[in-house]
Amino acid sequence: MATEPRTPLVHALRIAGAGTLLLAGVLVANLFTYAVIEEHNDLDHQRHFNDSYKIFSLTLPNAVELCGERVPLEKLDVRERLDRELLVNTYWQSNSILAHKRAARWFPLIEQVLREEGVPEDLKYISLIESGFTNAVSPMGAAGFWQFMKDTAPRYGLEVNTEVDERYNVVKSTRAAARYLKEAYARYGSWAMAMASYNLGIGGLDKQIGRQNAKDYYDLLLPEETSRYVFRALAMKEIMADPGRYGFHIRSKDLYAPYKVRTHVVDGPVNDLAAFAAEQGTSYKVLKLLNPWLRETRLSNPAGRRYELLLPAADFDAAEGAQDE
């Protein structure tokens, strides 16, 4: 007579007896029933979604200002334009958290330069909305935190060639941006208009002023990007000034600390930057991280210019030791 094959599972079940078989059957039936409910009961699924997932509209601030200038929230379109940018930046959480983190590293340096140039500190938000504190290059070729064009940069004191591109030098490009904005403010008498010209260009803004017979940013019909530009800066100012109001809870220890550096002056050629970095006790990668304006593997410096290179301090990699907020 033929015998049943005895797999380990069958053998174990025979030993355990009928009670185990019954329990196993009940478990399988329950799992099947649960799967069917999960798969087909749309009403329960929708209720679970509604109970678990909440998105809120925002309460706009009662009054806002940028660079000391009042924003006319009593105008319907102004309220709605601000609401749009607050919503975008509140619910684009990853981008706004990165903005907080990176700003902790770069805003102190940028604020210092803006103070030295005698312009409002709020202009720092231009660098944030232009680049997100990355050395991005736009499709049009604008580069660095302040997104200077190659042809415009030299007019404001920035050196741009194959080996050196000071659009990537945070201090020098901030100083150049401040000088541009001061010129624009002298022309328009408004920081909002100066900021609009930073995006659209003075020629483009003047054209719109002439067509519309209006000189106030909030009264001009401008191209979409420029129409949003000042409000993007304003929204980031509002969110970063009171992150908790917009649902952001970022501990101080999670912020990116300023780099700990020392300055090394060179006034001659550096034929091999990798070898130079090694001589200074660092790596080529870190040298380029701290000095992204160095665009090649060498610094020929035929004119014998004086360059300040940033090098890591002894405690460059040390944590700040910030406490939780």
Summarize the structure.
With 325 residues, the protein is mainly α.
Task: Tell me about this structure.
This protein is 50% helix and 5% strand. It has 325 residues and is mainly α. It has two domains: 65-254, Lysozyme, CATH 1.10.530.10; 261-312. A hairpin with a 2-residue loop joins strand 1 (65-66) and strand 2. Helix 5 (93-117) packs across helix 7 (170-188) and helix 8 (191-200) crosses helix 10 (224-241). Mean pLDDT is 89; it is low at 1-16 and 321-325.
Secondary-structure element sequence?
Answer: HHHEEHHHHHHHEHHE
CATH class of the largest domain: Mainly Alpha
Summed up, the domain count is: 2
Q: Roughly how many Å apart are the termini?
A: 78 Å
Assembly type of the shown chains? single chain
- Which class do the helix and strand fractions yield? mainly alpha
- Computed over alpha carbons, the radius of gyration is 30 Å
Distinct helical segment count:
12
Low-confidence segments, given as residue ranges, are: 1-16, 321-325
Percent in strands: under 5%
Shape, per Cα inertia axes: globular
Under the CATH scheme, the architecture of the largest domain is Orthogonal Bundle
Overall pLDDT level: 89
